[in-house]
Amino acid sequence: MVREELVKGYENFRKAAAKLSEDKNAKLYVYFIGERDANGENWCKDCNEAEPVFGQAIQEYADKDSIILRVEVGNRLAWADKENPFHKDSDLRLEEIPTLIRWKTAMNLHGDQCKQIELLELLFKEEDV
């Protein structure tokens, strides 16, 4: 069964990614999204639009040994800050959200690509490169 976890902020992301990467039998996917408010609403319009498609893709295409790490990158103001560590991290260099990365590979989808079920299927079914 696909395992899903949620973390908020850069430091929590780094800790979770390091820990989850230790499971060599699992495929780790990291999904970067905007922060949700108390009502569960995301300030990021694209993240909201991608969410149902992403959920469907997980159910239909992700291997049962997959781990989905959802990472909230902060509120709109924090995301817009050029010093935001998600932008500056040499492993990430995130420029837009949502972004889905197959951790420790070159496979990723950005922005509107995360709304396309066909591209999500390809990413989830792609073997290690």
Automatic annotation (TrEMBL):
GO cellular component entries: cytosol
One Pfam family matching this protein: TXD17-like_Trx
Signal peptide: none
Gene Ontology MF, one: protein-disulfide reductase [NAD(P)H] activity
Gene3D superfamilies for the chain: Glutaredoxin
Domain Thioredoxin: 7-126
Name this polypeptide is given: Thioredoxin domain-containing protein 17
